[in-house]
Amino acid sequence: MRIIVEAKMMDEVGLHARPAAQFTNIAREYKSNIVIKKDGSNANGKSLMSILKLNINFNDTILIEIDGEDAREAANALCSMLINNGNEVRIRDETS
Amino acid sequence: MQLNNILKGVIISPGIGVGHAYVLRNNQAVDYQEPSDTDSRIALFNRLIKNAMDDLSLLQGRAVDDETLEIINVQQSLLDDVEFKEAVIRLLKNGYKLRDAIHNALAEYGETLAKSSPYFRERAIDIQGLENVLLGSMSGGSVFNIAINDAIVICKELDPFQALKIAFAQDKVKGVIVEEGGASSHAAILLRSAGIPTLFKVSNITAINDGESLVVDALRGFVIIDPSPDVINRYTIYKLKIEDIYKKSFDARKMPSKTIDNIGIDIMANVNNYADLELAIRNDAYGIGLLRTEFIFMNEDSPPSEEEQYEVYKYVLSRMKNKTVIIRLLDIGGEKMPAYLKVPQERNPQLGMRGIRLLLRQERDLLTTQLRAIIRASKYNSNGAMILIPMVVSAKEVVEVKMIINELLNNDRIEHGRIGIGAMIETPAAALLSGNLMRELDFVSIGTNDLSQYTLAVDRESTSVGDLYSQFSPAVIKLIGQVAENGHKLNIKVGVCGEAASDPLMVPILVGLGVDSLSSEPVNVPLIKHIIRNIKMREAINLAKDVMDAPDPEIVREESMKFIKDHGIELPQLAMEEDQR
Fold it and tell me: How far, rounded to the nearest angstrom, does the alpha carbon of residue B517 sit from its chain's CA centroid?
């Protein structure tokens, strides 16, 4: 299944290294392919270096595409991590 | 104190360190044999990653605070990064040597980050640092092997791995001095958590010899090279007392900033760079009372673009969230001029083309660009942005700047937050006209350094009459009192942002004169709050009245010293300064 999550960064320094590292640690627990999209650029959600390259700042909106058999579980875990860090999150699209 | 041996830096972690130089030299080649074939190179690469991960696990076992643990976690994630490892292996398969493969793979990430926003730019060092971790002899291993017990560690740039090891060698490291260094770098965070006195941005410090005697004064922001036995003695004696007072006031930083009789005085911070911003946030400053924007304009051959400025203001405003941020328009003139500004050579630049004069008469484009960038960024703080006009001598200057601001607000359809407009009161003219100026303004801020210089007609650097310069002068105090009185009458907030606001002995006088806020050096914010909490407004008012009639500044200073002592406020650094006089 494929889930697209939209997240707005409300943390004043954006998705910076420490939360981004948390993100990859969670992402790597799942088989699903996880891609972060911002302004036409993509990052591998399981690679911290790749995420840092996207330069995700305060007030930026990103899309997280989660594709695979455990997409539901991965989306839940990633969303709760992002919400815990004070960001706004919503499910944009879901296809099975 | 010999002044020629002093190097300035920015305070990263406050405190005092007395010890000997221990210079870290990076990028020394590690003793490894470059394997001849691709497969053994890949095997060695995997082994190096594993060793470094093992070292990090050992460090993790010793970490006590969350920030340190999180940073270790970042280092682990970077080392164990799928894309990075794939990139290196791809390069190795293309015939690259291991050193080059690692270098090239990291360089690509580093270069992208270097073009990012200020915060992400500082992550570039984390990534470059991996090269040292994997290939350098310095970073490898989990223990910082250091031969002396009172090391002042010196280096050009500090990666998080090195900083971790230094942080865990606290008993042997008395201070850290870094030539470059980013204020919100992970290294800075680690040294702050470890409480090691640290200065960054100290030019040319790595040229020093190993073993040279040093004092790191990370309360006032300088290094003393080869101090006299007398200076070492004083610092050694006062170190514990001073650090104790700073620590106590730091622990009480969240307490309300009110006098004993319950009058609130806001303690804000002056910010010159990102290090100050970090310290201001850590010390729980009420806001930024003075963002000196010169740092954005200084290092380049051409002025910063609107976008570059916008990024900086956006970053500062959003970091401060709902706290006040007062941004001073570019204030240069006289001594420190970037090459792109062509200013006529004048006989007396202090009385010439500087501050708002320069912006209005010669650099209108620069002024408009700066204003646009600030206005655009203002939506990132729930209080908006406060704009401060420097070197004002007449209401006309204020009106002219307001016209440009209003044009931008009306015509440009820029999305923006609240905009407040204020003026620096730093000339006798502005102080005398403060009532008129206030009718055009939302707030004013008194700059005591220039106000003292212009009121007393003294250049403080003058070798013949510099001693006449003093913010304790009754003339300066009277002018400040007049401005505060006008502020009360017209319901306009009056702040003080000069050196006086960081000087514990000026604080009771300024409070007694009726100013609403003080903007001090970030490191002193908790200390100034501590003083406020221990004085009575009623008595401060009397003190202020009394000193206006004092015959000379020295007596004003003594009166204030007596006041501080009578209130049982312990300020050991005063004793130290007294000692030096």
Answer: 19
Confidence of residue B557 (pLDDT cuts 50, 70, 90): very high
Element (H, E) at B304: none
Among A82-86, B134-138, B229-233, B357-361, where is mean pLDDT lowest? Answer: B134-138
Residues of chain B with CATH 3.50.30.10: 1-234
**B120 with A18: Cβ contact below 8 A:** no
Distance to chain B for A48, nearest Cα, Å: 6
pLDDT digits (tens, 9 = 90+) for B403-415: 999 999 997 688 9
Within 13 Å and on the Cβ side, how many CA atoms surround B312? 22
Fold classified for A2-95? Histidine-containing Protein; Chain: A; (3.30.1340)
User: ipTM score here?
Assistant: 0.90
Residues B445 and B495: beta-carbon distance below 8 Å:
yes
- Annotation: CATH topology of B243-580: TIM Barrel (3.20.20)
Q: How confident is the model at residue B21 (pLDDT cuts 50, 70, 90)?
A: very high
Where exactly are the structural domains of chain A?
2-95
Nearest to A17 among B84, B126, B380 (CB): B126
Q: What is the pLDDT of residue B80?
A: 92
Q: Is B497 a catalytic residue?
A: yes
- Closest in B73, B116, B318 to A55, CB measured: B116
**Residues of each domain in chain B carrying CATH 3.20.20.60:** 243-580
Provide the number of CB pairs (under 8 Å) joining chain A to chain B: 71
CATH of the domain spanning B1-234: 3.50.30.10
* CA neighbor of B448 nearest in space, from B422, B478, B421: B478
Indicate if the alpha-carbon torsion angle B420, B426, B431, B437 is positive or negative: negative
